[in-house]
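Pilot study result, target chain (385 residues):
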Amino acid sequence: MAAVVSKKKAAATSRAKPPTVFVGMSGGVDSSVAAYLLRKRGYTVVGVFMRCFNVDGCAEQDAEDARRVAEHLGIPFYALDFEEEYKRRVVEYMVREYAAGLTPNPDVMCNREIKFGLFFDKARAMGADYVATGHYVRLQSGARGRKMLAIARDRNKDQSYFLWTLTGRQLDHCLFPIGGFLKSEVREIARRAGIPTAEKKDSQGICFLGQVRLEDFLKQYIPARPGAVLSLSGEKVGEHAGAQLYTIGQRRGIGNLKHRPGNAIHEPLYVASKDVRANTITVVQGAEHPALYRQRVKVAQANIISAGLRGRSLRPGASLAVMARVRYRQPLAKAALRHSEAPTGKKNEGEYELRFERPQKFVAEGQSAVWYSIKGEMLGGGIIT
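Predicted structure:
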């Protein structure tokens, strides 16, 4: 009888124990406030800094800032070294994709491979019930009780676009504490809590580049190969340093252009297309030129997050009305999502087509296309082909 009572007490104690959450702390205000809010809500919080790169000593400073916040909050703090994995899985991926003529998104790959890959698995192995980050995105219950992502309250800071690779299994063990706040509110929470990073500026651009321009970084790995800059009619109007170094919609640094009398260029030039094999880029004048728009966008390597959508959309020929974007911070646009059918008639998993109600500008192969419900729930995403 005593043994039975002891087991009941142990079970009650186990149920009463607060869940443990490992918070990825970057040294910035967002992840600092995420850790603060979770601790305030009663979670057992562990702060973790992920060392992924070190440009101009910024990693040491960020790690020190994260440690100071953890000390201020009175929570344990660890630093995990993912520098080699980050270089292999994110940096080399980016270089490889650019070399192939694509425009990759390193933030998407970092989330998939590092934050919700290595860090997620490491945290769970160390006993974490959840992992959390300072991403601006909301987590809510979807069909069949499964968790799903939704656009953040702060539409200007929403980062759901970078998180389309997450799976239902991962979302069951994820927390995003600041998704329901405006950036200004996050700053104010940090100030009131005395958090050391309250006034720290947000990081800008690709983290591992520091002050180096992307083109200059790529030139270290992709040999210069001068080629022709063409007009839409095929006329050579200048020369460039290598087609791989440019992306669709690029305006600055296009190359050495001809400015002949009677053929003056009055409007800014934009890259409308590129041919890596022929090593040419085609430019057009004006940001609203029709050649800069596409109405149909093919998507591969898709990940369907919504359990309710998964059953319908994976059937070839099925179509669904969605809201979608093909660039970060691009306004959501109405589109029809259709599963592509292989030429043989066999089911072709992971390949879709978005047909937008209105053509979309600057669609770049290699970037991400992400689709949502009319309510702002993320349904899935994939790589533009």
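One observation from the pilot: The first strand starts at residue 20 and ends at 24. A full batch analysis is planned for the follow-on phase.
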